UniProtKB/TrEMBL annotation:
InterPro entries: CheY-like_superfamily, NreC/VraR/RcsB-like_REC, Sig_transdc_resp-reg_C-effctor, Sig_transdc_resp-reg_receiver, Tscrpt_reg_LuxR_C, WalR-like. The modification 4-aspartylphosphate is found at residue 55. One of its GO terms (molecular function) is DNA binding. SUPFAM superfamilies: C-terminal effector domain of the bipartite response regulators, CheY-like. Signal peptide: none annotated. It holds the Pfam family Response_reg. Residues 4-120 form the Response regulatory domain. This is LuxR family two component transcriptional regulator. Residues 148-213 form the HTH luxR-type domain.
Length: 217
């Protein structure tokens, strides 16, 4: 089955460009496009895409607000921010809203298609500049690490193992294989961790694990 993609951007030329790029890639189908955040939420419900590519700055309901609304939906697809802006504020706001990744519109076509497939598998995808910012921004890295570790202390040992592997970018299937569990059991641990830590999605769990320096033994 192809990866079904919803493209959200208020610029018709951008939507057309993304349709052309992704439509030419093997195993990807653009099922719809939307011009603002409100339309994006409706399109997710109507078309049930596997991945949403979300512009952040749009009139009306912006991409940050739309992302937060989409991740609250049942069986929400991963939302990947796709924007021309890579400033610290934009990266952090998108991820806090529940985005499963942050990519620049300047991403080469072949790389963009590959990253869409990766996002559909449950992995976090970040542009190089966004990743550098997330790694280098923690001026209070020691304090941030202690706070993250304190939050993770609420988890059981097995939940910590699962979250640590999410921090390494593992999908549920990979976590199940490495911990010798069923995928359904892994999903249960992920759900418990989300509830205990007040996180919106697995991307936020993974970021918290990396911030705390959590590793599997």
């Amino acid at each position: 089955m192809p990866v079904r993609v919803l493209v959200v951007d208020d610029e018709p030329m951008v939507c057309a460009h993304l349709r052309t790029i992704l439509g030419a890639a093997d195993g990807i189908e653009v099922v719809a496009s939307a011009a603002d955040g409100a339309e994006a939420v409706e399109a997710v419900v109507l078309h049930e895409p596997d991945v949403v590519l979300m512009d952040l700055r749009m009139p009306g309901v912006d991409g940050i607000t739309a992302t937060a609304r989409i991740v609250e939906l049942p069986a929400a697809p991963p939302v990947v921010a796709l924007t021309t802006f890579d400033g610290d504020e934009h990266v952090h706001r998108a991820l806090r809203a529940g985005a499963a990744g942050y990519l620049l519109k300047s991403t080469p076509p072949e790389e963009l298609a590959a990253l869409v497939r990766v996002a559909a598998q449950g992995h976090t995808v970040l542009s190089r500049s966004a990743a550098r910012r997330l790694v280098g921004d923690a001026g209070d890295a020691h304090v941030a690490r202690r706070r993250a570790a304190a939050r993770l202390a609420r988890l059981t040992d097995r939940e910590r193992d699962v979250v640590a592997l999410l921090g390494e970018g593992c999908s549920n299937a990979e976590v199940a294989r490495r911990l010798h569990l069923t995928e359904a059991t892994v999903k249960g641990y992920v759900s418990n961790a989300l509830d205990k830590l007040g996180c919106t999605n697995r991307t936020q769990l993974g970021l918290l694990a990396r911030e705390a320096g959590l590793r599997t033994e």
